[in-house]
Specification:
The complex is a heterodimer of chains A (193) and B (584). With 193 residues, chain A is mainly α. In chain A, 76% of the residues lie in helices and 0% in strands. Chain A is built from 6 helices and no strands. The termini of chain A are far apart. The relative contact order of chain A is 0.16. The relative contact order of chain B is 0.07. Chain B has a two-stranded antiparallel ribbon with strand order 1-2. The longest helix of chain B is centred in the N-terminal third of the chain and has 37 residues. By secondary structure, chain B is mainly α. Classes of the chains: A mainly alpha (193), B mainly alpha (584). At the A-B interface, helix 2 and helix 5 of A face helix 1, helix 7, helix 8 and helix 9 of B.
């Protein structure tokens, strides 16, 4: 066996990255596919006519701003962790969480605004789709909130620092993804309603 | 060859491995995170489902084969589904067909096949200690188990399991009034499938991560066994398509339980209009088949991968065209996502779109043919060793050819109008997808059984198993092509009431002229052959032998003038006739 191995001149370590981070990216792909399916369904259904026209709730502008600020806070937390600045790491995560929850509350008020406009979940699919988009996104965002809380707890146990960034990095990635996903949905609705 | 990108995570890649294993019964056999044990769990659950699925098909084939038969002896098993006259309940027949499809496609050939062999072979064949996440892998099995339990329970509820076909098209599946199975049975179906999707995604994410990140030194992509290529691409297909099924099912759940109208529009039940407006049932078909077609390849690719390995091994030859095999797998993967609408040729979609999907569908024949040729050329002049696994693999190639050829017919949108939803389709996919994949699974089990369980199988029993199954498959499915071409539809409870053959008997009389073709005088033709639905005419067709002079009510202006000419000719002919008769 030893001799046989010598025939192999170059033995490369195959390309690889952190498997859990990679798995998270794959999970993001599945979420992308769900929303790709739903937004495609929206376009296909819209093309068939009998489509209720209504104004999008203005509060979406506010919630979009909240989600961007929340992402910035999370990014700040990540940079702080890199520099082992634990106080601003925790403050960053807390701010990200607060803005994230404010976003959720804002999304709830968007539903209130829709009901005021006589756009209901049960009725023309034009309205139902909006509820499904925002609702399903909110469910994912809640999972993100739980993830952030777990990371926040681990920062207090000093499990997140410049040499142990993997969990935080994954939380940051997921959080940015959820924010980006909302911005995509908002842009999509602006363009196709 | 992979380029020299050295991983930076060498220390992090492997989690802390506990080499001192002190497993209790529960952690070793039940909540195991070991990929080999999880593979066996998937295998055993898959076998369980295969038996159930096969049993269901036996039940409905009894009904189809012997519609007059007294099924009283099944009462201990089926209870109220056998009525007083000893007949199978028609709605339960539909439920049987639905559950057979669901179980075989998802629970046996997706979870049982991919779950078993991806789990068992990926770490062993790429040189990894275990899967990327043993915990996720365990979750994957237990979500599958949960999904199995729910689906199994749905078989026993009072209104029966889901009965709208495995494709669960709304409005049939969305309205409880439509069929008893669309009540609780359908709800359980949707819950079960949701867990199934979660299980598949957890598994798939794990397979992909493991293949990409945990390969051993020197194991570049160009050195991967074809089994791993197949499992890897299967997982990629699942990762991209199962979320879409989830989206489709989610909207269906909203329609069923919350009263939305994504798929429902303008439906009248017993004269009463339902409140739903503005939905589109075709939307569901698009979403469903965006999963549904790739699902076919989720089922098939692992079997093809296993076959590559088994045929090369038992021909004692290198696989012919390794690169072509990989490229054709990649080609099938990509194409599987852009052909879904060939299941919907008769759904009323734009015919132009139909021709595009037809074209894309027929392209799949190319990578499929490449694979077949490579199997055959690997076998060519090899030192063949006919182990049971080898026989099953060769039979897979046979089914793949005979079932694949009919795919070319069905892929043509024009022929599909005739063949759609007939037994021709049933024959096609049972050969190319059902039996081929099943035989791939059998080949895998026979081939790797010693590695899985540490003991050999009895080869003689294997041969008996093989020949009975192989001959049986062709005997069951081949005749279905003929009844399908004759027009016998799928999912019909009873074909004795179905008078498809009468149209042929009439036609037969009509096109059966006697000697000399026409008795007596050769008929005279007075008009062109296509006087269909002529304005003013009493009948919707006027034969060519009817003179224009007899149809003044439907004659066009220029034909009115021809009437005079016609009358003159008739007069002349009458004179000739009289003259002829006076000669006699």
């Amino acid at each position: 066996m030893e001799k046989e191995l010598k025939y192999i001149d170059i033995v490369d370590q195959p390309i690889s990255m952190h498997p859990k981070k990679f798995a998270l990216w794959l999970f993001l792909v599945t979420v992308v596919m769900i929303f790709a399916a739903l937004t495609s369904a929206y376009i296909v259904r819209q093309a068939e006519g009998n489509w209720l026209e209504y104004e999008l709730p203005e509060i979406f502008w506010l919630t979009s701003a909240l989600v961007i600020i929340s992402s910035l806070a999370m990014q700040w937390a990540y940079y702080s962790a890199k520099k082992d600045n634990f106080l601003s790491l925790r403050i960053g995560i807390v701010f990200a969480l607060l803005f994230g929850m404010a976003f959720l509350v804002g999304q709830w008020y968007s539903w209130v605004a829709l009901v005021d406009r006589q756009v209901f979940f049960v009725g023309n699919p034009a309205g139902s789709f909006l509820y499904v988009f925002t609702g399903l996104h909110a469910v994912h965002l809640i999972s993100g909130v739980i993830f952030l809380i777990i990371v926040l707890i681990s920062t207090f146990r000093m499990e997140v620092h410049a040499k142990a960034l993997d969990t935080l990095e994954m939380a940051t990635t997921y959080w940015h993804f959820l924010g980006g996903l909302w911005l995509y949905l908002f842009l999509f609705l602006q363009m196709n309603h | 060859m992979a380029t020299a990108t050295v991983a930076h995570h060498e220390t992090e890649v492997h989690d802390h491995h506990d080499h001192e294993h002190h497993d209790s019964f529960i952690t070793k056999y039940i909540f195991s995170t070991d990929h080999k044990m999880i593979a066996k769990q998937f295998l055993i659950t898959g076998i369980f489902w295969a038996i159930i699925g096969g049993l269901l098909s036996t039940l409905f084939r009894l009904q189809l084969g012997f519609p007059e038969m007294n099924l009283e002896f099944l009462r201990p098993l089926l209870g109220g589904w056998i009525d007083e006259a000893g007949k199978l309940d028609p709605t339960f027949y539909l439920a049987l067909v639905t559950m057979h499809g669901t179980i075989m496609v998802f629970f046996v050939l997706t979870a049982g096949l991919s779950g078993t062999f991806s789990n068992f072979l990926i770490p062993l064949q790429i040189g990894a200690r275990d899967m990327a996440s043993g915990f996720m892998n365990m979750l994957s099995y237990w979500f599958f188990f949960l999904s199995s339990v729910i689906m199994f329970i749905s078989l026993f509820i009072k209104t029966g399991p889901a009965g709208g076909g495995w494709v669960v098209y709304p409005p049939l599946s969305a309205l409880e009034q439509a069929i008893p199975g669309s009540g609780l049975g359908m709800t359980l179906w949707l819950i079960s499938m949701t867990f199934f999707i979660v299980s598949s995604l957890l598994g798939g994410i794990n397979y992909i991560t493991t293949v990409i990140n945990l390969r051993t030194k020197g194991m570049s992509f160009s050195r991967l066994p074809l089994t791993i290529w197949a499992f890897f691409l299967t997982a990629v297909i699942g990762l991209l398509s199962f979320p879409v099924l989830f989206a489709a099912a989610l909207l269906l759940v909203f329609d069923r339980s919350f009263g939305t109208s994504f798929y429902l529009a303008d439906i009248y039940v017993a004269g009463e209009a339902l409140p739903n407006t503005g939905g589109s049932p075709v939307l569901f078909q698009h979403l469903f088949w965006f999963l549904g077609h790739p699902e076919v390849y989720i089922v098939l690719l692992p079997a093809l991968g296993i076959t590559s390995e088994v045929i090369a091994t038992n021909s004692r030859k290198p696989i012919f065209g390794y690169k072509a095999m990989v490229i054709s797998l990649l080609g099938i993967t990509v194409l599987s996502f852009i052909v879904w609408a060939h299941h919907m040729f008769v759904s009323g979609m734009n015919p132009f779109l139909g021709s595009i999907f037809m074209f894309l569908t027929l392209i799949i024949a190319v990578p499929s043919a490449v694979k077949v040729f490579n199997y055959l050329t690997t076998l060519w002049r090899g030192n063949l060793i006919f182990t049971p696994a080898m026989l099953f693999s060769i039979a897979l190639v046979s089914f793949f050819i005979s079932g694949g050829l009919t795919g070319i017919f069905l892929g043509n949108s024009a022929i599909d109008i005739q063949l759609h939803d007939t037994y021709f389709v049933v024959a096609h996919f049972h050969l190319v997808m059902g039996s081929a994949s099943f035989f791939g699974m059998m080949a895998g089990i026979y081939h790797w059984f010693p590695k899985m369980f540490g003991r050999m199988m009895d080869a003689k029993l294997g041969y008996i198993h093989f020949w009975l199954t192989f001959v049986g498959v062709y005997l069951v499915f081949f005749p279905m092509h003929y009844i399908g071409i004759a027009g016998f539809p799928r999912r019909y409870y009873s074909w004795t009431n179905f008078e498809f053959s009468n149209t042929y008997t009439d036609l037969n009389m009509f096109v059966h002229p006697g000697h000399g073709n026409w008795p007596g005088e050769i008929p005279t033709v007075y008009r062109w052959p296509y006087d269909y639905s002529k304005p003013g005419a009493a009948q919707d067709f006027i034969p060519q032998t009817v003179p224009l002079s007899q149809t003044p009510e439907s004659n066009l202006p220029h034909e009115q003038e021809l009437v005079k000419v016609e009358l003159e000719i008739m007069k002349d002919e009458a004179e000739v006739l009289v003259a002829n008769e006076s000669k006699h």
